[in-house]
Design goal:
It is built from 6 helices and 5 strands, in the order βαβαααβαβαβ. Helix 1 runs parallel beside helix 4. By secondary structure, it is of the alpha/beta class. It has 2 domains: 84 residues, no CATH class; 41 residues, no CATH class. The chain is 39% helix and 15% strand. Strand 3, helix 5 and strand 4 form a beta-alpha-beta unit. It comes from Congregibacter variabilis.
Length: 155
């Protein structure tokens, strides 16, 4: 018999729509099931929690094999914005909230929302750059300590 998952720590490293939403959906789902959840944003994933960037996340059309025809056209001006608009419209039909609202819901549910200190330092950011729901900026070692005993998911 398998053991129930009690804790997940989700790493979000990509700053694209399809790189951010899976982690948000998984964290929200975990909290809805009573599972402890922590999000760890690193590298370009920090855009999801950056006050000035989280409203402008786009679908990565170049090099995204899942987009099929759009991949070939992805480098043309406007294609990324068009695909992003289409995806947001489809997510809205499914009642999936925009990133800022989703972060607020997840934070309100008790999930931890953390930034990677090395990435924050590398990009010359400060805690003031991030949304109010950010729990803090932590090192990788602190992340592993917090994640101990649970599942680590890299999206």
């Amino acid at each position: 018999m398998s053991e129930a998952i009690e804790k997940v720590s989700i790493v979000i490293s990509k700053g694209s729509l399809e790189g951010i939403y899976p982690g948000l959906i998984m964290a929200n789902g975990a909290r809805m099931e009573g599972i402890e959840a922590n999000l760890f944003f690193t590298f370009f994933g920090l855009d999801a929690v950056h006050k000035k960037r989280h409203d402008n996340i786009k679908v990565a059309t170049v090099g995204n094999p899942g987009l099929h025809m759009a991949t070939m056209l992805g480098s043309l001006p406007g294609v990324s914005a068009l695909v992003t608009h289409f995806m947001m419209k489809e997510m809205d039909k499914l009642d999936i909230p925009p990133i800022p609202e989703f972060l607020e819901m997840i934070g309100d549910s008790g999930a931890g929302i953390y930034g990677c200190k090395a990435s924050v330092d590398m990009f010359h950011l400060s805690e003031d750059d991030f949304v109010d729901q950010m729990t803090g900026v932590i090192t990788v070692g602190e992340f592993y300590e917090m994640a101990a005993g649970g599942q680590i998911i890299f999206t």
